[in-house]
Specification:
The complex is a heterotrimer. Chain A is mainly α. Chain A contains 8 helices and no strands. In chain A, helix 1 runs antiparallel to helix 2, helix 1 packs parallel to helix 8 and helix 3 packs across helix 4. By secondary structure, chain B is an all-alpha fold. Chain B contains 9 helices and no strands. Chain B is flat. In chain B, helix 5 packs across helix 7, helix 7 runs antiparallel to helix 9 and helix 8 runs antiparallel to helix 9. Chain B has a single domain, classed as MetI-like (MetI-like fold, Orthogonal Bundle). Chain C is built from 11 helices and 14 strands. Chain C is elongated and about 115 Å long. About 5% of the residues of chain C have low confidence. Classes of the chains: A mainly alpha, B mainly alpha, C alpha/beta. At the A-B interface, helix 2, helix 3, helix 6 and helix 8 of A face helix 3, helix 4, helix 8 and helix 9 of B.
Chain lengths: ~230, ~230, ~300
């Protein structure tokens, strides 16, 4: 059908999409994942302390950034924040990373709370019997165990972040979907600038394939880890 | 901060634009409603097929679920609208792509939710139904569905909420739902902060409201041992 | 004693004569009498760019022939060529410029956030935009055109009523159509690619956009054509941070140099199909072609309805 005769632009387009698009996506995803984990684990642990004000604030943070559609958060961060202060003027990449971090950290905070609270009281009591204070107890006994339970959600979050980097293309950031739009433009453009062809179907199919090949193994990994690590 | 105080005027923004925003909100709710119901039906049917390991349907369902869950919804929307649109026979109008894309997306997640729910129904209950003389279909309707459905309820509701939030992405095909409308207004009038305030409040109200009412419903519908 | 008095008198006279001569000389220092190559010194490159040793310029990545990415991943187009000339003027090398994709909604935030030095991205000057950012002098006179299919019932702007029009979001066309043609079905997309696809896939009856881009499309596709209307003749400018006078002076001066040396013509030849070059050569800055923005005394052209 359409794929039988591979058009001449297929190879360079594919290469551009991988080298520019996919790399851009993975770069943003890596930053957002690390930041989300650090912030999320911290907030989630703090959420378990029975102190009303912090719990209320953290709870608000979580419910807001999980409640808003990510695209709305992105617009707020990119277009809205600069109006409050010129300090907050961000370029698309940073705005994208911040948005994904806000969302991701809210997810992880919730997961951390669940993980920490699932550690039985026995562990807490044994640890204090051994002489650990609150911080020591958490750092040396509770968190290591809780982190094991966090790994499957973290892998799932990575998948979620990778899939949501596509939103950054809307504000002009460089990731895979945005790169594919540019390639559609140049393939569809009339000669001599472009190829005068019609490339939407093939290119979007290719993009879906790339995302699938990256995310499917990760999803499977998360499921496998869930079975292995969350046994107890 | 002075700039903010000088130009932020929520009152007049709402006064001038409330009709357009309301229309956008209605469209958001329309698409969400269709997608919620559609994805529910897909989830029930395919989830049951998966849980009962019905041949062919089961395998196809797995392929469907995995593709949808591992590709960005934005790409799915583009694919349906512009990708398929390359072929005149498969060109769909904006509204069709709007509800179809979100329904397909939601359906994949509901399939997984219900599959897990149905498979979590204790075997003893299912066996009991069969012992009472139910045909497999009647067994499903009278035993597996009510019990499994309730087990799946929390994740089902979460998917409903995700469906509502994802309607905001229809901005990219210029379907005039709430986010698109608000964005277009602020692009013309530059009342950016007012627009985002309205969007934020409306979405949070919808999402929180939905979560809260569902949590209340859950306590009514919860299984006795879970209460 | 007499010799002494004579000596002092002679010296004083000489001194007086010398002083008189010095004081009567014209006050201006090196004057026309000095080198003929004493043209006025060109404005210096703004410090931020000089220290970084390269430009960072926002351009379109999906609007051939002004700004697009070829399959090898390189930025190409009219605006990109202008940017490369700026790199040559500033650093002597055309590759001292990094490009950032600036689709229409991102153009102003990229400037105000300082992420780019300039935006050369089919950026039409409007008085409204001028309140938030600064523009260089005009460098390309664009006009709006309507792209329609060959058998379209739309013959001119007056046929737009009840039709489906597509253009890009927050462009001058967006506002103009909403203001002047309220009974059309307007679709706005967030970038040109989607606007083109919307038109190509027959989801709209006409695509309204800048002439050079549409001319290229019409030239290559036998099934579409342009109507004869030319509207919204608004020049492109180069966008920069508001109040950055050093930058504006530098950019304007170099555009002036390019105009005098007729450098825009070869750039045009590379971007527009050959048979359109003569007619479009009136849209670029040339030694004998001048254009600018509408003077403040006239009503804003972007708001004038036909």
């Amino acid at each position: 059908m359409i794929f039988v005769d591979v058009p001449e632009w297929a190879d360079p387009v594919a290469r551009y999409l991988i080298e520019e698009g996919l790399v851009g996506t993975l770069r943003i995803a890596a930053v957002a994942l690390v930041a989300s984990s650090l912030i999320g684990i911290t907030l989630g642990t703090l959420l378990t302390i029975r102190f009303m004000p912090t719990r209320a604030l953290i709870r608000l943070y979580i419910e807001v950034w999980r409640g808003l559609p990510i695209i709305v958060t992105l617009f707020i961060v990119y277009f809205g924040a600069p109006l409050i202060s010129t300090q907050f003027e961000l370029d698309p990449y940073t705005a994208g990373a911040v948005t994904l971090t806000l969302w991701g950290s809210a997810q992880i905070a919730e997961a951390t709370r669940g993980a920490v609270q699932s550690i039985s009281r026995g562990q807490h009591e044994a640890a204090s019997a051994l002489g650990f204070g609150w911080v020591g107890r958490h750092v040396f006994v509770i968190l290591p165990q809780a982190t094991r339970r966090l790994i499957p959600p973290l892998v799932s979050l990575l998948v979620g972040i990778i899939l949501n980097t596509t939103l950054i293309g809307i504000i002009g950031g460089s990731e895979l979907l945005e790169a594919s739009k540019r390639m559609v433009e140049v393939v569809n453009a009339p000669l001599p600038t472009g190829f005068g062809d019609r490339g939407e179907f093939q290119i979007y199919t290719f993009v879906m394939l790339v995302f699938f090949l990256v995310c499917f193994p990760l999803t499977r990994l998360a499921a496998w880890l869930e079975r292995r690590l969350v046994r107890a | 901060m002075t700039l903010l105080a000088l130009t932020y005027d929520l009152g007049s923004f709402l006064e001038e634009n409330w009709e357009a925003l309301l229309r956008g909100l209605v469209r958001t709710l329309q698409v969400s409603a269709i997608a919620i119901i559609g994805s529910l039906l897909i989830g029930l049917a395919l989830g049951a097929a998966r849980a009962h390991r019905i041949p062919v349907v089961s395998q196809l369902a797995v392929v469907y679920v995995e593709i949808i869950r591992n590709t960005p919804i934005l790409v799915q929307i583009f694919f349906l609208y512009f990708g398929l649109g390359q072929f005149p026979a498969m060109r769909m109008d904006v509204f069709t792509v709007a509800w179809l894309s979100i329904t397909i997306w939601g359906g994949a997640f509901q399939t997984e939710n219900f599959r897990a729910g149905f498979e979590a129904v204790p075997f003893s209950l299912r066996e009991g139904g069969l012992a009472l003389g139910f045909t497999p279909l009647k067994n499903f309707v009278n035993v597996t569905l009510p019990v499994g459905g309730r087990i799946a309820l929390p994740s089902t509701i979460n998917t409903f909420i995700a469906v509502l939030k994802n309607t905001a992405l229809l901005y990219v095909i210029a379907y005039e739902e709430l986010t698109t409308t608000a964005f277009q207004i602020q692009a013309l009038t530059l009342e950016t902060l007012e627009a985002w305030t309205v969007l934020g409040i409306v979405y949070l109200t919808l999402v929180w409201g939905l979560s809260l009412s569902i949590r209340l419903l859950e306590s009514h519908l919860a299984l006795p041992e879970a209460a | 004693m007499k010799r002494l008095i004579l000596f002092v008198a002679l010296v004083s006279a000489a001194a007086a004569a010398l002083a008189g001569w010095a004081l009567s000389a014209p006050a201006s220092g090196p004057t026309a009498s000095s080198a003929p190559a004493a043209k006025q010194a060109l404005p210096p490159l703004p410090a931020a760019v000089r220290n970084r040793k390269r430009w960072i310029i926002g351009v379109k990545c999906d609007a051939p022939p002004f700004g697009y990415i070829d399959v090898r991943g390189n930025n190409q187009g009219f605006d990109i060529e202008v940017a490369r000339w700026f790199a040559r003027y500033a650093f002597g090398r055309a590759n001292r410029v990094g490009f950032v994709c600036a689709p229409t909604p991102a153009r102003e935030p990229l400037i105000t956030s300082g992420r780019v030095d300039l935006v050369i991205s089919t950026f039409t000057y409007t008085r409204d935009r001028d309140t938030r950012i600064d523009f260089s002098r005009a460098y390309y006179k664009a006009g709006g055109r309507l792209l329609v299919r060959n058998n379209s019932p739309i013959r001119s702007l007056s046929d737009l009523a009840g039709r489906r029009v597509v253009t890009t979001s927050s462009s001058i066309y967006d506002r103009w159509v909403r203001r002047c043609f309220p009974n059309t079905e307007l679709t706005v997309t967030d970038n040109l690619t989607n606007a083109r696809l919307t038109f190509d896939q027959q989801r709209a009856d006409t695509l309204m956009w800048d002439d050079t881009v549409l001319v290229g499309i019409a030239a290559a596709d036998r099934n579409v054509k342009l109507t004869n209307d030319v509207f919204l003749p608004l020049p492109y400018g180069i966008g920069m941070r508001q109040g950055d006078t050093a930058m504006k002076r530098w950019v304007d001066s170099r555009l002036g140099l390019m105009k005098k040396a007729d450098r825009f013509l070869p750039i045009l030849r590379n971007t527009v199909p050959a048979r359109f070059v003569p007619s479009f050569s009136k849209n670029i800055l040339r030694p004998n072609v001048n254009f600018g923005y509408a003077p403040a005394s006239e009503p804003d052209p972007a708001n004038v309805c036909p």
